[in-house]
Amino acid sequence: MELMTDQRFRKTIKYLRALIFFGLAGLALATIVYFSLIGYAKLQGPPPLAVPQSSLFFSNDGTVIGESHSGQKRYWVALKDISPHLINATISIEDRTFFTHNGFDYKRIAGAALADVKAMSKVQGASTITQQYARNLFLEHDKTWSRKATEALYTLRLEMNYSKDEILEGYLNTIYYGHGAYGVQAASIYYFGKDAKNLSLAEASMLAGIPKGPSIYSPFSSMEKAKQRQQTILNTMKANGYITELAMQKASIEKLDLVGEHQHNRIGTAPYFQDAVQNALRNSLNFDDRTISLGGLRIYTTLDLEQQEVAEESISKMIADDSEIQAGMVAMDPKNGYVNALVGGRDYEESPFNRAVQAVRQPGSTMKPILYYAALENGFTPSTTMKSQLTTFLFDDGRSKYTPHNFNNKYAEDDITMAQALALSDNVYAVKTHLFLGEDTLIETAKRFGIKTEMEKVPSLALGTSGVRVIEMANAYSILANGGKKVEPVLITKVENHKGEVIYEYESEKKEILKPELASVMTHMLTGIFDKKLNGYASVTGSTLIKKMTRPYAAKSGTTETDSWMVGYTPQLVSAVWTGYDKGKPIELTVEKSYAKNIWMDFMEKALDNEPVKKFKAAKGTVAVYVDPANGNLASDNCPVKRETLFAAGTEPTEYCTDHLEHEEHKEEKPEMKKGKKPWYKRWFGL
Questions:
Q1: Is 598 left (phi over 0), alpha (psi -120 to 50) or beta?
Q2: Is the pLDDT reported for residue 527 higher than 50?
Q3: Mean of the pLDDT values across residues 453-465?
Q4: Are the C-beta atoms of 38 and 157 separated by less than 8 Å?
Q5: How far, in Å, CA of 552 to CA of 281, rounded?
Q6: Rounded to an integer, what distance in angstroms lies between the CA atom of residue 169 and that of residue 593?
Q7: Is 481 in contact with 334 (CB distance < 8 Å)?
Q8: Lowest mean pLDDT across 47-61, 81-95, 441-455
């Protein structure tokens, strides 16, 4: 008996030794694996936290005008901008030891492991908030052991490199709440129509219950189950000391106002403008499409919501509903080039083609101010005269001919000044000037004015036969409006990443590219299209708009067979309007030919309604004198018609007009001698 007992004892000791050995070996191996994992995680460093988020577009007053996404609504908010009720509710139901563990809740893991062993499959989860965040960032949501192992590594990396607040903020901004809403901000807006920071205890406790099963616990799926889940969360919050019994009872019976609608669901405000902004992000700022769509960018634009609304209304009101005429329009601040409003067509959903920035159309006579500015730089003045008569020009070494025609084939058959030629839109004067300067001059000057579209070197270029974009013409006239300083169309003032860090900010370049005194002279000449003193009320090209004006404007209209334009400005605002058919069909109806002018005037008057009336200030180096508009000479006190005209100092006329003296002499002659030839402008307009 004693021998048997001794043998059993030795066997037991041997078994215990083996058990201790293998236990110690296992512990050592586990320790080695653990520290190896820790070392590897440390070596790997902090994992990137880039998460797909919606990019938002803002107007110049901070209003959200649209967003870019791929069906997932994601808006990142800082932890301080999340309701404390939602933070506490989430921690209570998801991970009550979150602030004390190192990424893993070992008690929960052990309990879940026993349940899995009994079921012989992965049936119960024990994931902490950190583990769930790792999964949301980097992994698929399948229940496999390999995924759990990889998740553990990411969890360690998160815990080793980020604070608890950073992890909690990331988790709350990435968790899925159903109905396409990722993160607390998108969910708060969708379910309750408010920011995450404004959620009540009742709202927060219901929202915190949804991620467990969005298709089950969403109040839009089952209000009964959503309320049951809410009550469970309120109970845990009370048990964990976050709320009192009274607060729990009040929250459980509080009636919730559910919304069920995402922010910015419809096509955004100013869709053509937003398209132009996205093109600028790609082509000018070199952002890729994925970053624009899902990079969580905050894009701050120059859009003025009031001016945009006025622009859209003016186009809608002025063009007949049954007309197929299209429109493009750009409004800019001439001081900095900011695009305040942009319309690329009459109906974005019907046609997203952006006629304000994509269409290349003939600008007609709106090109003449650029030509005449070049002329001013080459010795011309507003009083420079040339004869207006039907003229055939030879070019290409005499091998080609070109005969420009005036509107209605009316010609002065006499000398006219540059100021008159601009106000009356005389085409013969323009072509003569163009050829006198040399055809390269206008092309090079147009480039200085910011026109990038390639231009043809032909005599008719003076009449705007080479296509340009609406936004280019708005930019060109902005340079005149600001006195000759370089500006370019600006759509984006600032871009922030999802962390709120500024990654792009527009910086203006202050550079003088025109002579200020000549830009001022040009502006003054452009006021002439509204001045009845320039040879009759019916003569100037802006005559139909004069009665609608409440402030001084400088502008030029342009007409081709297929295009109608109006471009002009005040010191505060520039706008360019084009109307025409997309396929280049001739504009035949008189009313359709007037659309551009009427849209332009309606927009300018309404857009500036609350702005002070500002006159154009004469630049330093200019002088203003009164001239007879018919011949450009100095007007004496007895001249029957005189107009104050601006000149670069030293280029003003020195001779006085004597036409009125001849007129006085004719009065004393015999009646038969009074039948002299009528002045050209009376013959031209049948006066």
A1: alpha
A2: yes
A3: 93
A4: no
A5: 37
A6: 59
A7: yes
A8: 47-61
In the chain, the amino acid numbered 537 is Y
Handedness of CA 433, 434, 437, 438 (dihedral sign): negative
Checking DSSP bridges between strand 181-182 and strand 73-74, what pairing results, if any? parallel
Tokens (6 digits) for 669: 């002659």
- In the set 67, 94, 496, 652, the catalytic residue is 94
The answer to whether 166 is a known catalytic residue is: no
More confident residue, 544 or 478: 478
Average pLDDT of every residue of the chain: 85
**CA-to-CA dists, residue 654 to 21, 575, 645, angstroms:** 117, 37, 13
Nearest-angstrom CA–CA distance, 476 and 489: 10
Q: Of the candidates 518, 538, 571, 579, which has an alpha carbon nearest to the alpha carbon of residue 681?
A: 538
Q: What is the DSSP letter of 435?
A: H
For residue 401, the cross-strand partners are: 394
Q: Is 365 labeled as catalytic in the residue annotation? A: yes
Residue 574, both tokens: 């520039």
> What is the pTM (predicted TM-score) of this model?
0.74
Q: Are strands 55-58 and 298-301 parallel, antiparallel or unpaired?
A: parallel
Q: Taking 90 as the threshold, does the pLDDT of residue 363 lie above it?
A: yes
Using alpha carbons only, how large is the chain's radius of gyration in Å?
A: 38
Please answer whether residues 112 and 148 qualify as being in contact, where contact means their C-beta atoms are separated by less than 8 angstroms: no
Neighbours of 106 (CB within 10 A): 11
For 512, the 3-state DSSP assignment is strand
CB neighbours (10 Å) of residue 198? 12
Q: What are the tokens at 141? A: 């949501």
Residue range 67-120, pLDDT digits in tens: 876 556 777 889 999 999 999 999 999 988 888 887 676 665 555 545 554 544
Q: Angle at Cα 180 formed by Cα 178 and Cα 183, nearest 5°?
A: 75
| C-alpha span between 29 and 23 (Å, rounded) | 10
Q: How confident is the model at residue 148 (pLDDT cuts 50, 70, 90)?
A: low
Q: What is d(CA 394, CA 459) in angstroms, rounded to the nearest whole number?
A: 9
List the catalytic residue out of 365, 388, 466, 478: 365
